[in-house]
């Protein structure tokens, strides 16, 4: 048993589900629609859980020929066989309205892989009473995903308020000194709030997957 | 009740323990021994859990006058009232021998705040059979802290093997293109293994605190 | 009238006081004690206001031979003829204890040039109730100087609370992704709180001088 | 009273006007026309002062359906209920003709929020007599906003001439070593003229808002 | 004999084949179709080996009027007089499907200049059993070209498994902290596997040419 | 006499010709065709020498309505009243064919302002005999402008061969580690050949203007 | 058989020699003398080839207690059981005298692992006739290691002259724009000479190990 | 005639004087005193002009055993056989007192190689009347070397005033956003004053050598 299927253009990791509880998630950019079709078909046949393709543009999504999938344009996500909501609760909080597409990816991926999600939007620290009003939502979560661009200060503020894991997602929102998200990334990494963790710029996907790992442990 | 004590040079967050399950951890650099003494005394009096001071050099540690503390020179850590080991198991894995001081901080902080720890040292991917031999240690952990410098590839390798949360700590080990740890940091953030999270360069402390947040949820 | 005195090693700008309301402030690094002595003597003779030398190390300060000066070791500041406190009130707020030396320079320069100062220390956003408790101090200020390292989130939080000018001073406190203060600098420049302004890393001096310009206008 | 209105896609900070003397200014990028419409409508109903949306492209502006607004294409600014000119005088100075769009945003925002503005264009230091000829304009201002790209030397030159606050706006004018405005930004931050303050690259808006904070204090 | 032909717009290095065993390879970007036509014609007339033009877009390729050439759209490569496969075996391994265009250039150039090539695709370390299954392919190669983006960890893993030369090609696959390939580049340069060498980002061409130099020595 | 004409959108430096021997050269980007028209008309009326506008795209050039001008599309240069060739000889040398547009700007500007120019193209160090064959051309020049991208090694090679001034122009030719010309820029600044000077990336214009300053001195 | 020995502080890769033809080379920095002693002892007992420790400072070297070793202070290298010189010839060429320590490491490691070495020093391109005079030495080599700092142009020049593999080692020689070796690194990666490969800054060791891989193939 | 002497540790370029009018200048860092002694002895014997060693620390200078040399501690320069002052006049201008060591190197090298020098110190743009007062000194120069750190604005101001060549030397004076001289470097490269040229950070030597090249042409 090799644990993978060699399609020539891809070695599909069919062992992933048994190893990590979830079929391999397909990274869309740079793949032809026919390649996505082939990989998804293989994953659907060789596993039982949800199958996802991320960062898919609408024109590519339209060319992927596999029955039963749904496409979320804001999240740029293709999903087959979404999981039912589980008991692990994730709260996705955004600093500003402009951070929504990244948060949407996080929320959509988390939902598709079986996490229960809530969303709190536009609670940036420039009007900190908006965050304070959301404290109940935050307190009920098992993990908070903070999505923020510019200076990313929301991650520190949330990190100081809650006891649960905080996964910070820097976004490329902003201009000039925002440095395409690098400033938020570095700021979140040096947060004065202890125990925050950080994922790649604009990677709502990574934060959801990190939450999936948390849920795996919480369920033990 | 203000939730803090104003010592003039510091506003000690005496509310932290009730909010986050652990007294404020003191960041040592830039503080005078007398200031550390004052803050630690206040924390010991206003809380019941472990009190820690991080990144303390030996000469400073020697001048902190509070009974009952212990000093770990490798981890540069001062601890009062360490917690008893709990049920949450953290495995600290290092890529090379030179990463040990950062891993030691992670291990020492994790132990002091009540996590059960194991250590796997020197399992870098240049001899990947060494990592394969450690798979049982990794499989039994509730979270893995991966400590690696240079190109930080160990985080990706571990991330692909385990299902539990992986917290990656880039270190400043290496020279030239290692860029004082920035290369490992960026590499870990763009890992092809999904759902890794990352903390600041050389911050064994942050990884242990992130594990503490995980344990808080796992215990719910 | 040339408006300056040419000492060979320096052209002392004796016109500065009439042009900007304050004698030239001397930048200490790279100057010999004898050069500082010469420049200060010239400034004392050609102007009537306070004369300052910044960033002077103790061994250099000890070799500057001009009667009537005082040296502040924390602020690394030499002062002759300090001004009496005026009506313009500046509040210097720091995120952490480790930011104190930079804040001390800001406070000492501001005091020496005739501003009324108050200090609020250690109100970082990881325990945001500490900042909330300082709102009265902030509200009474004509300008707030926020001194913060690491991710510099305090500037955004303060910027959202007060209506007066906020001058943000990033500090080199922190390590790794703090990038010697560059992260705080960039974060403050991209703050979601509108109308903040920023000065150079670790430049408590610049913030005080910016406040001096504000006072000049407020007094019109 | 929560101090905000939750529209789902945005938490409108309706408390901002009482806290800071001006309704929340809306950041346009990343928002749908319908979202801008909703937020502006809410702000107009819950406050009395000017309502602004920044960085709005013409095609988006055309789709915002709220009566009474005007659109300035150069400044990319939407304004409702502009304030009458107040007594605080701001002079906007540009180094070159190519810096005009950023200066235009600064001037338009400043006018809309009740500051009196004058403009001095194209006074870069390569022909410094042009700046010298503008000294009267500068001397009558309560604050000078200096807008300059490339090496940004105009900020230093102006900073040495006037006693009032100088707010420097680096622009992305130039190429190669201009580094999209980073060079001007860094240069302004290290200016040899004391007490300059700096805002984000190309952020004419931030400079105007900083001037608003100055005016608030000058009026006390 | 000058060793070159001066076409005005180019000095064609007609001596290259005798000096390095291969005619000059033409770098396509920035050259007009007529210029490419002229240079290729000259090279075909003055040498006997394969003539290549790299990084040619389809519209440019269509305008190059020299009989006998073939165009590979994925590799963006024009070839005249390809060499027969020699005894030196190169294995091109990719971390992910998205790295294929760069690997395709490497494979196509290597084939055209007379190296024997095999390809192993999609063996990234997130599912390391896929790499382990390819060990035979790797073991039979005289050199391995590793093509990987994101964190580039595949280079370290391969470098630890094989004894032959490993040429690492970082790709610009990925986003955010992938920094357009800089992260993979730096990571490969600091690999814990000894004796790897690295070429420019996305330069499948350079890796193939480095392999050509290896073959030259192996044939001695 | 103010020494400039204030057109509102520009302060034309009419004193420049008497001060520096050449009318102000107009920087095209960011200027409206009508603005260019106005400035050029003013310069033609107030000075006697050549009038140039740089970096003008064809569509803008077509809208500039001033009789007597010529437009060079490769150099993106508009010229009125070009000077007759003088005795100062400038040799423009390029490393590769792709560097030509930048070299063309240098050559066109130099010619327009009265320098005698020769061009040597495609003499990069990968085939150093091509450079050696050009030594006579180089030896007869009063200054050499070296235009090179990628690693910019041609500047060092030329700098070691000739005794006259060498002005190095880094170009953005190349990809990946070429860093849009930054690599060539830094390389030229640290050349082991003593006494090279460097101008901005892709600035053929600056090099020509630097040569104009040389000619001014040589003619004394 | 696990293929490694677990010493607690290190997992010694005892399988390396059979896998790659050379025992694991020990990276010295960050290791205690006792740790080096333990690892070296283990390697000597479990393998038959040369055992090396790199980057060892003299005071550490003096504390390593294993008989039979020699220490090269310039190369900072400890060696036990050096190999006899083999048939593969490596030429180490340096651009300047200041690059010698890095070249010395390369030469010493290469010699110790059984390569035949020659050295050509101080052939930088500022006096290119010095390089031309060394062409015979270069032509007889099976591989050339080029060690150069500052702008690193020597790599391009050598790459254009020889047909064999060229391994470029950037050094941190130089100041300012040399950027601690980053400039040479980037320059070498973008060399106009095709097929160069590059290793980490100051890593004479890596270049020697890359040559070892070449020799392994040449011997097949 | 090889044109160089091979001393083993150095290939002394004895042809340099005939090629470029000046013996090779020795770069001191990284060379042993005995090596400097050997190279200088060779240069004195094989040429007739001045022999210089740059960047020599006092303890090294004291160990160089060649009769007839002088050592300038501020300039860190060793000189044998200085040239008599020629007719080419160089003015070295500094922005601040702290820039003096770099300017001193420039002045000392220029004097030693036969240029006539004047110095104008401390004319930074914060008090621009100081520069205006120096216009006569500037006007009489054949070339101006501008030495400035921080934001380097002096180069632009001087560039706009004089017609002769301006060689800008950025210095590492300043802190934080001064970025060790990178800010001044980039600012000078993007100066709005046309035709400036720039040399490496802190390289007073390079500027003097560039002036030497100018003098060579002026003397034709």
TrEMBL record, chains A, B, C, D, E, F, G, H:
<dbReference type="InterPro" id="IPR000031">
    <property type="entry name" value="PurE_dom"/>
</dbReference>
<dbReference type="InterPro" id="IPR039476">
    <property type="entry name" value="P2CMN_synthase_LarB"/>
</dbReference>
<feature type="domain" description="PurE">
    <location>
        <begin position="88"/>
        <end position="220"/>
    </location>
</feature>
<dbReference type="Pfam" id="PF00731">
    <property type="entry name" value="AIRC"/>
</dbReference>
<protein>
    <submittedName>
        <fullName>Nickel pincer cofactor biosynthesis protein LarB</fullName>
    </submittedName>
</protein>
């Amino acid at each position: 048993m090799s644990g993978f299927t060699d399609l020539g253009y891809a070695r599909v990791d069919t062992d992933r589900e048994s190893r990590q509880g979830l079929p391999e998630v397909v990274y869309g950019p740079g793949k032809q629609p026919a390649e996505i079709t082939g990989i998804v078909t293989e994953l659907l046949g060789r596993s039982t859980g949800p199958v996802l393709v991320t960062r898919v543009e609408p024109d590519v999504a339209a060319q992927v020929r596999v029955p039963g999938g749904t496409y979320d344009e804001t999240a740029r996500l293709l999903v087959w066989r979404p999981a039912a909501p589980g008991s692990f609760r994730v709260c996705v909080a955004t600093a500003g309205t402009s951070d929504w597409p990244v948060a949407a990816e996080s929320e959509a991926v988390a939902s598709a892989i079986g996490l229960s999600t809530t969303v709190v939007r536009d609670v940036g620290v420039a009007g900190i009473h908006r965050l304070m009003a959301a404290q109940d939502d935050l307190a009920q979560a098992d993990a908070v995903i903070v999505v923020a661009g510019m200076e990313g200060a929301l991650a520190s503020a949330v990190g100081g308020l809650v006891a649960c894991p905080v996964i910070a997602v820097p976004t490329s929102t902003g201009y000039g000194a925002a440095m395409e998200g690098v400033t938020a990334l570095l700021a979140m990494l040096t947060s004065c709030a202890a125990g925050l963790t950080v994922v790649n710029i604009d990677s709502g996907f990574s934060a959801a997957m990190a939450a999936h790992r948390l849920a795996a442990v919480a369920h033990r």
